[in-house]
Task: inverse folding
């Protein structure tokens, strides 16, 4: 973070000119922030939060999009000249998305002018101070848990502000509302309006991303940590360094006397190392009967049960399949109860929750082939998704097959986890692998591994696998390969979703 000697002040005074139901308790010393990369999911939500607080927000992005149009419709100024070097004269703070490099012309100009430059995580941390922050951490499930919690607290009349790294049609009004609008944010009350925590600073829910240690900028009152595994090894280098980073994050949670609490997975979260010496309250959650919050799950019916530390049980049925989603909903339930939300309303909300984009999302059906899209790009996520679909859909019962198109995300991740990837497709009958999605890695790293290496590993394990490119060729292959009763799932964090859409539409954009 680059700062001038006069760092922006942070206060908890709500702006009196903002709407009562959408006040935010943030101020950047009266400055006018400029957001570079404002069209991103998190950045656009951040712009909304600060705008609703009464700050005069401006920003830019590389190209127009529905997101930037929505910002402009909300009277937020957005420009699109990415080569511009001249920032507006009336700004003092520049907030940059993770995609913006230090050599971007506007970043260079900001430094020359002595402006305060903040990253997106740093700005999100500013927003969380003075709020009742809830941070969702863990290697997997952050977006789903955040969206579930946001919808549930909205349905429970807590009216939170939420930033999630995916779009969810139910987030703006809650899962129990008939109104739907695909968004990745919502702006809620400046004070908690009801429940055991009524009158406290309003709730702000956000994902706590471990990439680049971004979550070290957050200051949550409540937090959850789900499973912790080796990931982002291009940043951390080892699992021990990942655990150390999560430990540092846990130490940022407010102390117990201020309501601070960590809800951590009983198993798989290295909880003994993470929780040692914490000043906040600590409760465990999991399928293990020794957990403080004990989860039960019936895969055939989708029924989830949670028994709280006082031995009270709540039950709901999820439309999203999989034990991992049962766990996500249980974590959301435990966090929501921790801020005093009504248990009955929470259960009703989870039953009505229809999911979010690219998280086990049913795209449609073509000629008897059901097509799913999923963001999973880590071996554990792939295994959980394919296992859930195999159990819930059971295509083999009607003579069908589970066909997976998986696009690896980053060459470094593919290389680090090549053997793990090879074992994560046991529930798939056919696997098609396009080129690895190239992002962040160096050109040297790009030549160290290829999709063909993964295909060779899969074939060695007797998995029917093939490497095809471009996307149009994969769609053509699917049209020849798929038959009624098959289940097609496209997976990955890159643009692989275009294959699912293209197959349904009969072509690729």
Result:
């Amino acid at each position: 973070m680059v700062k001038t000697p006069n760092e922006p002040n942070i206060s908890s005074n709500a702006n009196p000119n903002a709407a009562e139901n959408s006040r935010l308790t943030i101020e950047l010393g009266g400055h006018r922030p400029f957001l570079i990369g404002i069209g991103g999911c998190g950045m656009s939500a951040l712009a909304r939060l600060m705008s609703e607080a009464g700050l005069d927000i401006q920003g830019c992005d590389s190209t127009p999009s529905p997101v930037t149009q929505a910002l402009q419709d909300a009277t937020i100024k957005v420009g699109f000249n990415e080569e511009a070097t001249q920032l507006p004269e009336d700004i003092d703070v520049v907030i940059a998305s993770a995609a913006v490099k230090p050599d971007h012309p506007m970043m260079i100009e900001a430094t020359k002018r002595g402006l305060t430059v903040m990253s997106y995580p740093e700005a999100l941390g500013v927003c969380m101070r003075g709020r009742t922050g809830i941070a969702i951490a863990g290697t997997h499930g952050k977006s789903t848990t955040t969206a579930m919690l946001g919808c549930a607290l909205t349905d429970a009349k807590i009216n939170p502000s939420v930033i999630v790294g995916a779009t969810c049609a139910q987030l703006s009004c809650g899962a129990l509302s008939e109104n739907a609008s695909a968004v990745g944010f919502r702006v809620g009350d400046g004070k908690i309006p009801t429940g055991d925590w009524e009158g406290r600073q309003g709730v702000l829910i956000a994902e706590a991303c471990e990439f680049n240690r971004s979550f070290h900028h957050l200051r949550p009152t409540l937090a959850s940590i789900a499973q912790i595994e080796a990931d982002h090894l291009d940043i951390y280098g080892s699992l021990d360094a990942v655990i150390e980073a999560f430990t540092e994050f846990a130490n940022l949670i407010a102390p117990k006397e201020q309501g601070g609490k960590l809800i951590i997975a009983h198993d798989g979260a290295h909880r003994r190392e993470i929780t040692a010496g914490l000043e906040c309250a600590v409760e465990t959650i999991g399928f293990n009967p020794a957990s403080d919050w004990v989860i039960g799950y019936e895969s055939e019916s989708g029924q989830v049960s949670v028994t709280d530390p006082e031995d009270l049980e709540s039950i709901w049925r999820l439309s999203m399949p999989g034990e991992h989603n049962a766990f996500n909903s249980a974590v959301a339930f435990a966090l929501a109860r921790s801020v005093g939300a009504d248990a009955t309303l929470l259960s009703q909300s989870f039953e009505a929750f229809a999911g979010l984009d690219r998280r086990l999302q049913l795209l449609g059906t073509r000629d008897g082939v059901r097509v799913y899209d999923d963001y999973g790009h880590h071996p554990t996520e792939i295994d959980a998704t394919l296992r859930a679909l195999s159990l819930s859909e059971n295509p083999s019962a009607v003579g069908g097959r589970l066909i997976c198109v998986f696009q690896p995300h980053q060459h470094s991740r593919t290389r680090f986890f090549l053997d793990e990837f090879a074992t994560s497709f046991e529930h798939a009958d056919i696997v098609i692998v396009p080129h690895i999605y190239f992002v962040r890695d160096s050109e040297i790293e790009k030549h160290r591994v290829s999709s063909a290496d993964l295909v060779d590993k899969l074939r060695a394990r007797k998995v029917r696998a093939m490497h095809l490119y471009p996307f149009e060729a994969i769609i053509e292959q699917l049209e020849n390969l798929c038959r009624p009763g098959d289940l097609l799932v496209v997976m990955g964090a890159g643009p692989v979703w275009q294959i699912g859409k293209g197959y349904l539409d009969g072509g690729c954009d």
Q: What stands out?
A: Residues 1-27 have pLDDT under 50 and may be disordered. The longest helix spans residues 323-338. Residues 361-505 form a domain with the Protein-Tyrosine Phosphatase; Chain A fold (CATH 3.90.190.20). The two ends are 39 Å apart (CA to CA).
